[in-house]
Design brief:
The structure is a single chain. By secondary structure, this protein is an alpha/beta fold. The chain has a single domain, classed as Vaccinia Virus protein VP39 (Rossmann fold). It is built from 10 helices and 10 strands. It has a 7-stranded mixed β-sheet, with helices on both faces. A 3-stranded antiparallel β-sheet has the order 7-9-8. Helix 3 packs parallel to helix 4. The longest helix is centred in the C-terminal third of the chain and has 15 residues.
Length: 251
Amino acid sequence: MEKGLIKKCFRRSIPTYDDHALVQKIICEKLIGFLNIRGNYFQKVLEIGAGTGLLTKIMLEHIKVREYIVNDLVEETEPVIKKVMKNGDCPDWTFLPGDAEIINVPGNLDLVVSGSTIQWFTKCDLFFNKLAGNMNKGGLFAFNLFGKRNYIESRSLTGLGLHYPEREEIENMLKNHFEILISQEEIIKMKFPDPAAVLNHFRKTGVNGLNESGWTKTKWIEFIKNYKYQFLYEDGVALTYHPLYFVAQKK
C-alpha cells in the first residue's frame, strides 16, 4: 500500500465522506453500542483514523470523555474534528496527525477506538503490540476493520484490493496482550442503481486509494459491463461490506 496515495484520496473525500459513508455510520453506531459493557465514562481516549469525525460524533453523543486524543493520517481533517468537538462539548481534546503505525501514541490510555481504519495498516500485529504498551491494565480497545468478503464484487473484476483478514487472524494477533470480550462479523449489502454509482461511492468515500491511474476508458466500459452481468438484481447492483468487530481488554 502506498500511504501517500491513500492520504490523497481521503483528503479529497473530506467534503463528501459523511453523505456517502452510510455503512460506515451503521458500523460506528454498533461499535459504540458495544462499549456499554464498561459504562459511559472514560478518562483518556485515543481514536485512531478519525477522518471527518463520524465515529467521534457518535462517541460524544453516548460517552463522557475527560481527555480525547484524535488521530488521523490526513492533517486537513483537524478543522472538521474541531467542529465536532465543539458541538459535542468536549473542550479537552488534542489532534494527533500522522500514520498511527509510525507515530508515537500517548500513554495511560483507558480506551482506544477505531472505525473502519485498521484494514489500511501494513503490520496489524506490531500496531496492536505498540498500542498495548501505552494502555492501562483493564483498558478497552474497540475497533472494526473489514473481512474477506469486503468489496468482493469489485475485487473479483479488477483484481485490486486490500488483504482482508479472517476474524481468527485478528483474534490471534490480539491474544498476546488482550482478552477478547467481543468478536463478531456481519455481511451488509448496499444497492446502487448501476456500476458507475459504485465507482462514485468509492471516490466520495476515499476508498479508491490503491490504484488511480489504471482506469482507461476501455477498462471502465469493461468493468461496467461485467459488473452488470454478474451482480445485477431487480433493485440495482450490489456491493458487499464485511465488517469485523472487536472489543478487547488489556491484560
